[in-house]
Amino acid sequence: MAPLCRVSLTPLLTAAWFASLPSSNGLLDRTSLTETCQEIAASVSSASTVYYDTASVHYTNDIAHWASSSSQMAECSFEPGTPLDVGIALQILGKTKTPFAVKGGGHTSNPGFSSTTGVQIAMSRFSDVTYDAPSQTTTIGAGLIWDDVYAALEPYGVNVVGGRVSGVGVAGFTLGGGYSWLTNQYGLTIDTVQSFELAMPNGAVLNVTAASEPDLFFGLRGGFNNFGIVTRFTLKTFPQSQVWGGIIMYTANELDLVNQATANFVANITDPKAQIITSILGISGASEIVFYDGPSPPEGIFDEFLAIPHEFKDVSTRSFLSLVQATPSNITSDSRAIFNTISVLDYPVSLLEAIVNESMFWGQSLALSGAWLISYSVEPFIPSMFDHSTTPSAYPPSRDRALLPLEIYFAWTDPTSDGTVQQAIRDTASYLRQLAIAEGQDVANAASYSNYAIFDTPLSSIYGENLPRLQAIKAAVDPTNVMGLAGGFKF
Predict the structure, then answer these.
(1) Does this model's pTM top 0.90?
(2) Taking the C-alpha atoms of 209, 113, 334 and 288 in order, what is their torsion angle to the nearest 10 degrees?
(3) Helix 349-365 crosses helix 418-438 at what angle (to 10 degrees)?
(4) Among the listed residues 278, 169, 275, 291, the one whose alpha carbon sits nearest the alpha carbon of residue 242
């Protein structure tokens, strides 16, 4: 392993600077917020409910997020039960200029993206999964997590292109793009969407397809909640047998071997059914998730990983759901957390060694800030990953080449360290991007994956040349900027 070193350290973000970030809070006084909540409650059907009691189970669940730093105390929470009620609420929120948020699974790490001190819309009642065998599609509610979808489809022997670890919500994952264990075979999740059920800012409910609403269909495939609130998704399904895989944990002593095995996999394995996620964890070592879409992999694909001495291994032939739930993705639940990302074209050993160095450096540097998890997840895909759809989409802005995400993930405990840790994760992403460029990778303008990107990532860094079209669509369907009252990447 290369010696621990670091070329530069960007000055840490000050608390004052972080406090100055734009927020949806404070647009209305509390009395006005309460009146808006009451108007929504009086206007919607009996299928929907508004909750005011902050001690109630419903309210608590509605505002809760996987990362505690992503939760806020809302004036009220609203659980809509029909798309029309979502539309009614949007009209009231727009009329009163009330800040709001939309929460599906609540797995965002970006503060304020699905939380608010205004009206928290929780999509939990949209929890249906229906399978249509003749069309080989499934329609799923926006309040689900992927675990629920996989469990519901398993008896039919089919699956969808969805999340890779337990607890991830359907809505944000899909509207941001969706990298899956099945992406090499079928594309991103957005490449498999057949239609969106969309509640518009003007209250109308549309069934958005590529034929009926091509601009909206383009925008929703990667453009998040800029055009309204999606209540249901109809996705293609694919046959699903048992799979092989699970998680392996290695100590830091084995990082050189893990790096070499990862680089060899990226360079040599072209079987679309085979995938890995290598997570570098600094002094904690590394975790390896291995996946093969079949009961057993051909010899040679994962042999190098299996031969490395390990401290824990849970790898077997199992159901797809069992594999997804085998990874301890919720171990950081209720901690403060932030993601960031870069996109690269390759993962050579030299870049992997730099990632190890970064994980060691920031593990030491952020220890006094209460950071207890420093993780860099290497996510390789085959070159044809973007070739499964010819229908234009908001993300990726170009499908000319495969982009391999690096998910950077820091978790900590102390709220006063938020700014420090967030700046650190910006700094490490910038450093690794520049290193990849210096090594000859043409990634200066490579699109960042929005579901991993930190909250202040420039829109142009995610959507590239698609941004002007997305802004025009947004202006056409939401001229009074109702959706601008909610958090997220805003056009």
Answers:
(1) yes
(2) 60
(3) 160
(4) 291
